[in-house]
Amino acid sequence: MTSTAERDNKVRLDKWLWAARFFKTRSLAKDAIEGGKVHYNDQRCKPGRAVEPGARLKLRQGFQERTVIVDDVSDRRRGAPEAQMLYHETDDSVKHREDLAWQRKTMQAAQLPPARRPSKKDRRNIQRFKDQNGI
After folding, report:
1. I need a surface site. Which of 12, 30, 106, 126 has the fewest CB within 10 A?
2. What share of the chain is helix, strand, coil (3-state, %, to 5)?
3. Are 74 and 19 in contact (CB under 8 A)?
4. Are 39 and 57 within 8 A, CB to CB?
């Protein structure tokens, strides 16, 4: 039988992710966990998994993939400065995210917009090309 202090210290993974402000709602956190976007110690897990200090979490949110280490456990959502004290991100994760952000920016800069909008004749030619090629 577990003591009340030990039972009170256990926090579900979805609730911890919400309290640490990775997700806006617990249901979004639950969906991400069930969708395989969150790994607990390099393994897929369930939303009800108990979070322990020292655990390694891999989170994918859009283009960003983070690796964080749990420092503290809390089930209360507080301000962002307090939420950031619940975890720390690994140095490799920070560097990898910055590299990917730089790559996205350079790829976006390489795709210059057209010099002008297509004319009516150009639009007709584009539409004809799409119809012929089944696009």
Report:
1. 106
2. 45, 15, 35
3. yes
4. yes
In sign, the C-alpha dihedral spanning 7, 8, 11, 12 is: positive
For residue 82, which phi and psi values (nearest 5 degrees)? -75, -35
How far, in Å, CA of 26 to CA of 18, rounded? 6
Write the pLDDT tens digit of every residue in 39-88. Answer: 999 999 999 999 999 999 999 998 889 999 999 999 999 999 999 999 99
- H/E stretch holding 50: none
At residue 60, φ and ψ (nearest 5 deg) are: -120, 125
pTM of the predicted model over 0.85? no
